[in-house]
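Fig. S4 source data, part A: sequence.
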Amino acid sequence: MNFFAILGFNRRVSTELVYNFHFNQHFMIKKRKSFVFTACIIFTLSVILLNDGCQYDYTSPLPGTVSIRLRTKSDNLDFSPLNNFVLKVTQVEAVRDDGARAIVYEDTKAIGRTTNTYNTLDVRARDSNIVMGEAFLPPGNYIGINMLIEPGGSVTLDGYRTIPVSAPQNFDALLRFRKNYTIREGATTKIVVTIDLDNALLKRANSYSFEPIRTITAFLQNFDSLSSGTPGTMGSLPLGWTRSINSDDPTSGAWGIRGDSSSQDYPTASSRNNCYSTYTQSSGSWVQSNPVDISSINLKDVSFPFVEFGFRFSAASQSTITLQVSQDASFASYFSSTVSSQNNTHWHYFSSSLPQESISSPTVYFRWLVNGSGESSDVRIDDVVVGGHRLSYYISSIQ
């Protein structure tokens, strides 16, 4: 075979090899495109299937249920079909620990709440069998129940005796039941709210006064029974009271008793004498009470202990008076609260709640510390009241 024949043979083989290479390459490209297309379809179907139904990585919790029941107690009034004293309830709320409130209707199928009337002397109320409301609530921590009420106008005894019932002028229709509880997913929490009728119904001569919140006064000092002294001498402090400067000179910075001609500006409009002190800038003069017996507000059914007093500065300068409360006369530790003169010379009224830890002992001491800014002036305090509020309602059971 000559050279050209061999060359022609090789050229034919080369042409076939090149053709086969291009054919296989085209086939592989088509095959790859088909695979990618199929993979895209499978991925899309997977996304649709995964998002269909309840196959999330996270789920919303199911609600829990709260059931609120009414219980009343009384040793003076009988629970009988012939006795009747009603409470009208216009709204019930569950209060969450973040302050959010949810309205509780009569049952879980209700779409609104109407005013309901409950006989507190019904036998079912004694046995906690009156359901006031039920609702689905988000799981979480809650701090209490709010209830908007209106007392009935009379108490009926033995089916025929009617005794009028009135409410005080400052009556607060909102009862705030406070006790921590937890709503759990898919579970029912039963809460029993109790109203003590013996404490809520205050007996008068021929009627009752409905007072679910009653103020208990443990201490009162208005200084009016004390001598106001002379123009050059202050009157003596109440028995047992002490002061940082021991002097009766009204210009010494000491505390003492003086009269006040500006009593018409005082909120009670009844002040004659008050506790008085002159002061200079950063004087730090103080007066301290005798041991105050607070055993009457250290009871389980007395809540929200408080202290109140009036104060007045004679100059319109920025000055402060600080109240300190301690369980010991040395004031090694104390609760304190500071108020300012508010840049005017009128009487002001100060009120503050007292932390339970500051009144855990049977007696406490009160100290008033004055500090001035700018010109010299004087300060007066009056009508010191220490007390608490007795609540005749509370949450008695959580299940």
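Fig. S4 source data, part B ends here. DSSP finds three helices and 25 strands in the chain.
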